[in-house]
Design brief:
Blueprint lengths: L9 E2 L2 E2 L6 H13 L6 H28 L13 H46 L5 H17 L5 H21 L4 H24 L6 H17 L5 H52 L5 H19 L6 H50 L5 H17 L5 H49 L6 H17 L5 H22 L20 H30 L5 H37 L1
Antiparallel strand pairs: 1-2
Helix pairs in contact: 1-2, 1-3, 2-3, 3-4, 3-5, 6-7, 6-8, 7-8, 8-9, 8-10, 9-10, 10-11, 10-12, 11-15, 12-13, 12-14, 14-16, 15-16
């Protein structure tokens, strides 16, 4: 939204006080409306401008707040302003007083016109009666003084009235042979007065305020007209001097308004360009809140620039402002609609995430590790499909959801850590047995070797499970060591093993196929577990201590599982090749 154009606090040479509120302006208008002094037009116009500047600014601020609060531009209604109604009522009284004053002034001007016409007529009669010149001179001077004391007349009659007056005054001086000393005295006094008027007019060339200089010149012209003639040989010279000084002031006045009009045209060009910028921004697509906020800042910057530009030409000033305001209102209206809809979407997303948090909390104490892990993974996947919510609320929901996930997975890790430790101990025990088998090769006593081999085989079989990724490697090392002993000592195999596509556990292909089925189950289980952990890693990529610790643990576990996965895959491929060879 936009504020109205700024108003000056200075009118001509009169500086009016500034007002902070509409109430202060209204109080001053009441003083004028009900006071004794005649209303000053400049002050009344100034008060009206200041009041409506504040009134429009308040109304536009209210409208902007309404839009930003999600209100619809079409449904907006302007609330009546009691201060505005009171202001209009008081201004009506002021207007009536000014109208009455204007009528009285016009009536006075008409009376002044009639009085000056009577004076001209009397001087005219004096000019036609030369025999009474001596006696008429005092009356003539009295009429001149009376003429000076009479003030304004209708502007349409002023020039003609002054020319007739000057004509008959000059005729009175020129056609009648008055007392030379009196005549010369008058000429001398009039020359002094008109010389001062010329000097005053010439000083106006240095007046900074060209408007004030122009108005002061009009007053000097009025005084010049009301001052009597000078000696005939000096009349043109004095008038030429006064006219030259007037020409300088008039040219400055005209140049001022020419420059003002030129500047107003430049202002119109600049304001038109700003309108085009806002319209272009308003036409751009906004893909999200970031785009809306970025475009909002751009338009606010343009609005700030608009306020630095002065008026456009009068006939275009209102139109260009309405165009600018329409473009701004269009943008902010659509922005308000977008955020109203976004607010509804955020509310729905928050409700969905809150439901997932409750589900996660209901499962976080479960000890059914496999089934519950799958359910948590499903919840995590669903969480990812839900859109955004306000940051503060979203962060809290995420913390609650992550806390439930961490609670479960940490409990699961603790529960399964004992199993891993036991498998590691079994691995060390079997490696010790394999080392003893390898050392048995150096024995020369066949019976002792066979007896020891049998005992070590039973010990090896009695040891429990080892880590899955070490299982096949350990299996091959063990049977390689046993085969070496059997070959050296000619011991009959007590437990056959797979070799060359044939089973050491039986005489047909049933055991290799059973082995392959078991490996396939392990293969699928590993694949599923790897996917689960990788999904968890992507989901738990957050900057929290618990989240980072869990991620590190999962990364290490994924690497181990992938190694086991590749080993199982290789054994399946090997079995398939052996079966194909058979």
């Amino acid at each position: 939204m936009m504020d109205s154009e700024n108003n000056a606090l200075e009118v001509g040479k009169t500086v009016f006080p500034t007002y902070a509120t509409k109430r202060e302006v209204l109080d001053r208008v009441r003083e004028i409306a009900h006071g004794e002094a005649d209303p000053d037009k400049d002050e009344v116009d100034y008060l009206k401008t200041v009041f409506y500047k504040m009134h429009i600014a308040e109304r536009e601020a209210s409208y902007k707040e309404y839009l930003q609060g999600g209100g619809s531009p079409d449904a907006y209604q302007i609330v009546p302003d009691e201060e505005e109604e009171a202001f209009k009522a008081e201004m009506g009284i002021v207007k009536e007083r000014r109208a009455k004053l204007f009528r009285e002034q016009e009536e006075e001007k008409e009376r002044n016109l009639q009085r000056k016409l009577e004076i001209i007529e009397k001087i005219k009669q004096m000019v036609t009666s030369p025999e009474d010149a001596g006696k008429s001179y005092p009356e003539f001077k009295a009429l001149q003084q009376e003429w000076k004391e009479i003030k304004s007349v209708p502007a349409t009659k002023a020039n003609e009235l002054w020319r007739n007056y000057q004509l008959y005054v000059e005729q009175f001086y020129d056609m009648f042979k008055l007392n030379i000393e009196a005549r010369e005295y008058d000429f001398k006094k009039n020359l002094e007065l008109k010389t001062k008027l010329c000097e005053a007019a010439e000083k106006l060339a240095d007046e900074e305020d060209v408007i004030s200089a122009f108005h002061q010149l009009q007053k000097l012209h009025q005084e010049y007209r009301e001052t009597g003639p000078v000696a005939k040989e000096l009349r043109e010279q004095v008038w030429a001097r006064f006219k030259a000084a007037s020409t300088v002031v008039n040219k400055r006045h005209q140049q001022h308004f020419d420059e003002l009009r030129s500047k107003e045209e430049d202002n119109l060009v600049r304001k038109t360009a700003l309108c085009e910028k806002v319209e272009a921004i308003a036409a751009e697509e906004n893909k999200g809140s970031g785009d809306w906020e970025r475009h909002t800042q751009q338009i606010m910057d343009i609005q700030a620039e608009w306020k630095t530009i002065g008026f456009a030409p009068q006939k275009m000033n209102v139109k260009i402002f309405e165009r600018f305001r329409a473009a701004c209102d269009d943008f902010f209206g659509r922005k308000a609609q977008y955020f109203r809809e976004l607010k509804d979407t955020f509310k729905l997303n928050a409700e969905r995430k809150r439901a997932l948090v409750e589900k996660a909390r209901s499962m976080m104490d479960s000890t059914d590790w496999k089934s519950t892990s799958d359910k948590f993974i499903a919840l995590q996947k669903e969480w990812k499909t839900i859109g955004m919510v306000p940051k503060k609320q979203g962060d809290q929901l995420w913390e609650d959801f992550l806390a439930a996930c961490n609670h479960f997975f940490e409990a699961r890790n603790i529960a399964t850590s004992g199993q891993r430790n036991e498998e590691q101990q079994n691995l060390e025990r079997k490696r010790e047995i394999i080392a003893q088998l390898k050392a048995l090769v150096d024995t020369e006593d066949v019976d002792e070797a066979q007896k020891t081999l049998q005992q070590l085989a039973e010990d090896y079989k009695a040891v429990g499970h080892v880590p899955f990724r070490e299982k096949d490697k350990l299996y091959d090392e063990y049977h390689t060591a046993v085969d070496a002993l059997r070959i050296k000592f000619g011991i009959t195999p007590g437990k056959p093993r797979r070799q060359g596509g044939k089973s050491r556990r039986g005489g047909d292909n049933q055991q290799p196929m059973d082995e392959r089925a078991r490996l396939m189950r392990q293969y699928e289980s590993l694949k599923s577990e790897i996917q689960t952990y990788e999904n968890n890693i992507g989901f738990l990529s957050v900057s929290s201590k618990k989240g980072n610790k869990l991620i590190d643990d999962m990364n290490r576990k994924v690497e181990r599982l992938k190694s086991e996965y590749e080993a199982v895959k290789a054994r399946i491929i090997a079995i398939d090749k052996e079966n194909a060879a058979e």
